[in-house]
Amino acid sequence: MTDFFAGIPQIKYEGPDSTSEFAFRYYNPDEIVMGKRMDKHLRFATAYWHSFAWPGGDPFGGQTFERPWFGDTMDLALIKADVAFEMFALLGQPYFCFHDADVRPEGKNFAENTANLERITDYFAQKMEQTGTKLLWGTANLFSNCRFMAGAATNPDPDVFAYSAATVKTCIDATHKLQGENYVLWGGREGYETLLNTDLARERQQAGRFLCKAVDYAHRIGFKGPLLIEPKPQEPTKHQYDYDVATVYGFLKDFGLENEVKVNIEQGHAILAGHSFEHEIATAAALGIFGSIDMNRNDYQSGWDTDQFPNNTPEVTMAYYEILKAGGLTTGGTNFDAKLRRQSLDPADLILAHVGGMDICARGLKAAAAMLEDGTLEDRRQERYAGWDESGAQEMLETASFEDIEARVREEDINPHPKSGAQERLENIVNRFC
Ligand code: XUL
Ligand code: CO
């Protein structure tokens, strides 16, 4: 046991009237929501990188956090792991996620990196066994080290492609060893700054071949979980190739991977792409590639990836509404890819940020479930499309040519009258629930 969280009690559900900071007011893992336990709906995960590896820097200043495990040695990496698992236990957090670079010291070459990763993930395996915490997903950090500054799979240098492929292999191995339920690929620097030095078509091919090899390897070792691409439109590069869900779908189709790979959708990235979170979720669900979510918001004014914990119930409600309609989270989960503000220095800040985020998600989930159970919204939506259920409409869609349709419009003197979309009435209904 470390003393990092000394004095902080186990966080328990106390109900909406609780005035304790160190308690859940809405997240009650045992509560049944639409026939399923709340914890099984939400499948919360902590992001190792923001909570334990991020020093508090921003573009104008460096480290603000003093953490006893900061430093690049194996001993410190083990202390970091101890603290991380203590936090998961205090929160009752069922899952965590990590990149290789968050958890192991950087070695002098690939072989040393891999040995370090194996050692620390063996330690994780013991901790997971002791605490029951599970791995939602693992991933490779192919963006922080300067070797990746011009991309990983899309790099103009084939040696970087090789180094990246070998690294992803070791990270899939580590995820598989820890029975991770998904494997994520966020294209950190898979994009470009200027076309003046970039062969866009070639880079896209490289990314496609890389992903095919990752899928092939995952199959061959019997990794069960889906591979997930995390779309993001820009940052760090000006033009990221995995712009948004629709772009990723086009890319997957191009390489025949649309039934192999799904998406991990991050709220902040959706906002950066000019979409709402629920738009991205609904798009993925409609295309059959919805996988998991990163539940961290961006600031609407800053316009960059601020990775804040969620604190807006109506927004979160609409996300879970689309998730529930899509059949819920299956292998996916709700990962807090969120970091503290850099002035939030105390261990208690780290715990309470998660408590707040978990409570907001629980409120959103309950509101979304209540909206679905009430059924008014879905009834109104269906009524809006009722004309399409009539046989003539379906026949037109399936078999009629433009000439047939023109003939029918003339014959029946079809003369449509606009109907209200009733948006404000629908918004009023939503506001009854959250
Ligand atoms: C970056 C981001 C990553 C991915 C995993 O914006 O969201 O942390 O979630 O690499
Ligand atoms: Co993310």
Model description:
This protein has 434 residues and is of the alpha/beta class. 47% of the residues lie in helices and 12% in strands. The chain has helices at residues 38-42, 48-53, 74-91, 100-103, 110-131, 158-177, 200-220, 245-254, 267-272, 277-287, 313-325, 347-374, 376-384, 391-398, 402-411, 423-433; strands at 12-13, 23-24, 32-33, 36-37, 44-47, 95-99, 134-139, 182-186, 191-192, 227-230, 239-240, 261-266, 290-294, 334-336. Strands 5-6-7-8-10-12-13-14 form an 8-stranded parallel β-barrel, surrounded by 4 helices. A two-stranded parallel sheet has the order 1-2. A two-stranded antiparallel ribbon has the order 3-4. Helix 6 links the parallel strand 7 (134-139) and strand 8 (182-186). Helix 6 runs parallel beside helix 7 and helix 11 packs across helix 12. The radius of gyration is 24 Å and the shape is globular. The site of cobalt (II) ion (CO) has 4 residues, from loops. Cobalt (II) ion binds next to loops.
SSE diagram, text form:
Elements: E1 12-13, E2 23-24, E3 32-33, E4 36-37, H1 38-42, E5 44-47, H2 48-53, H3 74-91, E6 95-99, H4 100-103, H5 110-131, E7 134-139, H6 158-177, E8 182-186, E9 191-192, H7 200-220, E10 227-230, E11 239-240, H8 245-254, E12 261-266, H9 267-272, H10 277-287, E13 290-294, H11 313-325, E14 334-336, H12 347-374, H13 376-384, H14 391-398, H15 402-411, H16 423-433
Parallel strand pairs: 1-2, 5-6, 5-14, 6-7, 7-8, 8-10, 10-12, 12-13, 13-14
Antiparallel strand pairs: 3-4, 9-11
Helix pairs in contact: 3-5, 5-6, 6-7, 10-11, 11-12
The protein binds D-xylulose (XUL) and cobalt (II) ion.
Residues 230, 266, 294, 337 line the site of cobalt (II) ion.
